Each structure stands twice: as structure tokens, then as C-alpha cells.
Amino acid sequence: MKKNGFTLIEIMMVVGVVGILATLGTLAVRKSSESSRIKQAHIELEMISVAALQLAWDTGKWPNGQSRAAGGSTEMWDISVDMCGLLGTDGNYNEWKGPYYDGEIKDAWGNNYFFDPDYRIAGVNHVVVGSFGPNGKGKNLYDSDDIYILLDD
């Protein structure tokens, strides 16, 4: 007598192959999503860098309120506050013609964009606007996933 159907081993093999394919698909989607977030942060930082430079040209000051010529060492960990001068002003900027930026004020991971006049790259300080990247670690903890745009080149 011939029985129709699949054996338990055949069914388990099919389920295993489907599981592996689903895992690979999920990993590809996650990698693509992270790549999109990084690109989004780069685009937003390009716009923020233009805004910071326009503020500096108009007022002679960076978003930390320091002279554009000196830069200072005061970091601004949240560029959305009025004392940065990009979205509003606290009155600290002569010749302010803003707002200079009206885009996203948080990066793709929900962290604040920052301004850092002494961001260290290869042992040299640079003026940058940036994001702490996917891991969100920052405030002078420079690491390889930080995303930034140089303002002093």
C-alpha cells in the first residue's frame, strides 16, 4: 500500500530552508534601512552646514556664539536652542537674519545634531556640525560611526 504525503523530515527541511531565507531577507532589510538613515543624516547635515556658515557670515559668530575667527571650544550638543542662532536667536547675534534652518533638528536615530568647534580628526581640531550616528554615543567620544560635515575646509 502506497502512502501519499511528505515525511516529517521533508517538512522539517522545507521549514528550515524557509527560516534561513527569511533571516537573510530580514538582515538585508535592516542593512538597507541603516544605510538610508546614514544617507538621510548626511543630507540634513549638508543643509545644517550651509545654515551654520550663513549664520557665521551674517553675524561673525558660530552657533556656539563665539567669533568665527576664533571658534572657541564650546560645543553645542543641541543646535535647536535659540542660543545657537540657527532656528531662532536669544539676542546674542548682531545682524541676525534668520532663521537659517527649518529642517529636521534630530537625526534619523532621534538624537540631536551638534556643533563642535574642536572636533578631533586624525589629531587635528576641526569645526564641524554632526550626528553621533547609529550608536548615539558622543559628547567628545569621537568614534567611527559619527557623521559630520567640516565647516573649516
Short structural description:
The chain is of the alpha+beta class and 153 residues long.
General description of the model:
By secondary structure, the chain is α+β, with helices and mostly antiparallel strands. The chain has one helix at 8-59, and strands spanning 114-121, 124-131, 147-150. It has a three-stranded antiparallel β-sheet with strand order 1-2-3, with helices on one face.
Write the SSE topology.
Layout: H1 8-59, E1 114-121, E2 124-131, E3 147-150
Antiparallel strand pairs: 1-2, 2-3
Total domain count: 1
Tell me the structural class: alpha+beta
Number of helices: 1
What is the makeup of the main sheet? 3 strands, antiparallel
The total of beta strands comes to 3
Beta content comes to 5-15%
Examine the secondary-structure arrangement and name the CATH architecture.
Answer: 2-Layer Sandwich
- CATH homologous superfamily assignment: Glycoprotein, Type 4 Pilin
Q: Quaternary arrangement of the chains shown?
A: single chain
How helical, in percent, are the residues? 25-40%
Low-confidence stretches: none
CATH class: Alpha Beta
Coarse shape = elongated
What is the fold-level CATH name, i.e. the topology?
Answer: Glycoprotein, Type 4 Pilin
Strand order of the largest sheet: 1-2-3
Mean pLDDT: 86
Radius of gyration: 24 Å
SSE arrangement, N to C: HEEE
* Distance from first to last alpha carbon: 83 Å
